[in-house]
Each structure stands twice: as structure tokens, then as C-alpha cells.
Amino acid sequence: MPQHPTDRLKIADIAGFDRFTANGKLSPARATVNAALIGNPRGSYGKDCQPVESAAIKALMVTRNVGPFSVTGLSPAVSALTAVMAEVRTTHPDLHDRLGTAGMLCCRLVRGSATAVSNHSWGLAVDLTIDKELDTRGDGFVQRGLLDLWPIFNRHGFYWGIAFPTEDSMHFEASDQMIHRWAAEGAFGAQSGKTIPGALTVGDRGPRVLALQRALNAALAPARIDEDGIFGPMTRLALIDFQRANGLAPDGLANGTLQKRLGI
Ligand SMILES: [Zn+2]
């Protein structure tokens, strides 16, 4: 049977592929770090896209044709995406011409969360379509074409959303490493150089948060928080209880000392 970029493959059945380690050393962008290094796009967030309120952040947004489509996003992320697409055009010309986007800049919460701010709010994540089809989030399947794109995105410092606790295979975002690099290069102007929060806290998500939730559930048995990889208010309350029970300052921050105490 001919292979097509929109063929859907069951992620668990892909030989030699582990979605949790697919991104190698790259880590997902962190809302707390983005806020410190880039700034806050808005004062509050909802389920749907809302405009950027901050004039400084608005000034960092560009609209550009990146090859197969035009998109609005954070200037350095759009430049990196342009480089990705130039490579895709060379190595996968047919796939390149089938690509489209469901958007980059969109100030909103993470789908299904009441607290975690999406990395789309900073215009540093892109959602891709192939032949105008959007891969369904959380269904455990991935479009074949996205598997071809992943190593190229990784090489350019983008983190693939297939590794999120709820897989989001059509989503690629600038990794935490790229945000730090751009900040060090002065890409975010006056915001650059602010103190970076090291501790995990409300708004963070990803594998480190998932490890924290599992450890808290084990420590505070019976389990009481959803292991969804999103640091929300319930995770914070559980963390504070753990801190109180262990004679630590109940600040709701999972810093290095606390992570060591939990064995993560
Ligand atoms: Zn996305």
C-alpha cells in the first residue's frame, strides 16, 4: 500500500520509538521562564485566543511567509521555523508543499487546564496541518509526515508535543534551551537577563511535573492529584502538605532541595 503523509500510525506500535524520549536533551518551554525572560503577554488567560496586551511583547511578533505558509509568532521562533522549512523543502519537497498551520500566536490556557498558560501565548509554538488535516491531540496516533519532520525540528531546537503527557503530535515549540539562548543573545530586549526561576511551580508542565506528581502521590498515599503533567492548584496544595509534613517552608515551590527529598 502506498504510504501517505496523512496516514495515521499508532504511536505505541512504532518500532524503536519512545515518545517520552523522542526529544533527547531538549526540554519543553516553561511558562515561568518565558514570563521571566520574555515578559507576560497578558494579565489573564481563558480557553480561547485573546490578543497580546503587552506593547513590548507585541513588538517582538512578526508575520512572515516561512515557506509553505504564513504565520504570526515570536520573531526568533519564526526565524527558526523558516530554517526548519527550508530544510524540509530540500529533504521532503512533497511533504513541504502539503504543510499548513493552525497557528502560532494564541494567548490562552493549555487545553483542559484552568491554570497552565499555553506556550502559544508567546508565539513560540506552531501547530501543523498536512493536506489541511490536523492530527488529533491525545488519540495515541500520529500522522506519518510528522515523524519525518520531528528530527528536523529537533535539530533546530524545537520540542515535539508528542512527548507531552497528553500527546500533541501536531505541536512543535521552541525548547526551553532555545528560549535561554535567545535571551542570552538579547533577542527579548529589556526583558533579557532577569532572574530565572529554577523551582517548578504553578503553570509549569511536562515530564518533570509528572515526576513530581507521581512522587507526591506516592508520598501522600492515598494518591490525591491527577498525574497529568500540569502543575495546577491541586498539585500546589499537595506539595504544601508535603512540605508541612516534612518541616519545610510551605511555599508551594518544588526547588532542588524538595525534588531531592522526593527522590526525583
Ligand atoms: Zn499547539
Mean pLDDT, to the nearest integer, reads 91
Could you tell me the CATH topology label of the largest domain: Muramoyl-pentapeptide Carboxypeptidase, domain 2
Number of helices: 9
Rg over CA atoms, rounded to whole Å, is 19 Å
- Sketch the major β-sheet: 5 strands, antiparallel
CATH secondary-structure class of the largest domain: Alpha Beta
Termini Cα gap:
45 Å
Number of domains: 2
Which structural class best describes the helix and strand composition? alpha+beta
What coarse outline follows from CA principal-axis ratios? globular
Q: Helical residue percent? A: 25-40%
Using the 3D structure, state the CATH architecture of the largest domain. 2-Layer Sandwich
Bound molecules: zinc ion
Low-confidence stretches: none
Number of strands: 9
Strand content: 5-15%
Q: Helix and strand succession? A: EHHEEHHEEEEHEEHHHH
